[in-house]
Amino acid sequence: MRLADIYSACATRYASGSFTIPDYWPNDDNNPAAGTAHARVWFLPSENDAGSLGGNGVDVQTGILQVDLMYPTNIGIGNILDKADAIATHFQRGHSQVYDSQGVQFTGTNVTSPRNEDGWIRCIVSIGWMAHVVRSVV
Q1: pLDDT digits (tens, 9 = 90+) for 26-46
Q2: How far apart are CA 132 and CA 111, in angstroms?
């Protein structure tokens, strides 16, 4: 599988959005400053199904790029919803990104209702993706 390339394609597409909010990925040791709006980005592979048969066929890998928007409480929800909308718009169904010859197609987004969680307002943007991965049987 080419999960590293799929991850990089998703990260490249996210970075091209210039969302003007600090983002934190699983491999980032930094912590957000208290009370500062930020995004936590998660790469979540899911199903790996056969797209065709044979040793040189294609597999279909799917998953979600999850963006947890974290905003301070007591400022309303307008800003967090604006940011969620900007991210969802950047990943509209049908958009794609290529990294090192591995293509990834974005299959749609889902935005949850903002909710109070551990002293933050949290809104989750789930971005569906799929990639056709060439199977190589040795």
Answers
A1: 888 888 888 899 999 999 999
A2: 26
